[in-house]
Amino acid sequence: MRGFRFETLQVDFDGFALSVVLNRPDARNALSPLMVRELSDLLRTASADPSVRLLLIRGAGGWFCAGADLKGVLGGGLDGVTMENIKAVNRSFGEMVSLLDSFPAVTVSVVEGGALGGGMGLCAVTDLTLAHTGAIFGLPETTLGIPPAQILPFIVRRIGEYEARRLSLLGERISAKEAAEIGLVTSLWETEGALQGMLEDVRRKVRKCAPGANRETKRLISAALEVPLENLLDEGAGTFARCLLEGEGKEGVRAFLEKRKPAWAEEEE
């Protein structure tokens, strides 16, 4: 696990815990195609290393993750972008989330600032989420004319259909306290000292559990909740691409790139 070099991640391994920092602070750690590839590569390698007992994910610069990097995906616009290209990029993101979901060691998201869209998706598939009391969570994709296609199966599984409908269909943002109430957040912290105390407690408890038993337990939990995710993710990729390149998606993305509100958001103003 040593010797890794990444452009978008800061990685440290102490022989027990693998710490990963999403390192695009100027973009609030938005998930660029490169970051998704690097996360996927890291997760594949680390999942095969039995010495990794704990995986910690945090964002640089006081933010966890603002979701997908649309500018990075589109290169600044929709011209020349094909349906197949968007499907492939979107599906690769779903594959990365699936790798994190099935990661055999204990996984923890540490959230401050916010976890929006794909960032909230990462929280939905980690075993624990420790959030700053001032953090926000949300699924803003539909305000851009696109669905949260790849993360929705994981979101529904984590917080239930009812809350998933509310957050996604209203593009709503909620506080860390409310996120804890609906089951997305495990614990809340106010100071860095309190957070470090929580992490030490997690580390101590994980160390007490047999690594092989934890791996098998996670496998059994996943099997108990098994749904045809591959079909859902494939369908989601096609829906995402269609929404992005046709109708409302074009307007939503152009409004985002032009830093204005989309047409439908101005109708009642």
How would you characterize the overall build of this protein?
- The protein has 269 residues and is of the alpha/beta class.
- The chain has one domain: 2-enoyl-CoA Hydratase, Chain A, domain 1 (Alpha-Beta Complex).
- The chain is 48% helix and 15% strand.
- It has 11 helices and 9 strands.
- It has helices at 33-47, 70-74, 83-101, 118-125, 152-159, 161-170, 176-181, 192-208, 211-224, 229-245, 248-257, and strands at 9-13, 17-22, 54-59, 106-111, 114-116, 128-132, 136-138, 173-175, 187-189.
- A 6-stranded mixed β-sheet has the order 1-2-3-4-6-9, with helices on both faces.
- Strand 2, helix 1 (33-47) and strand 3 (54-59) form a beta-alpha-beta unit.
- Helix 3 (83-101) packs antiparallel against helix 10.
- It is globular and about 55 Å long.
- 42% of the residues are buried.
- The model has no long low-confidence stretch (mean pLDDT 92).
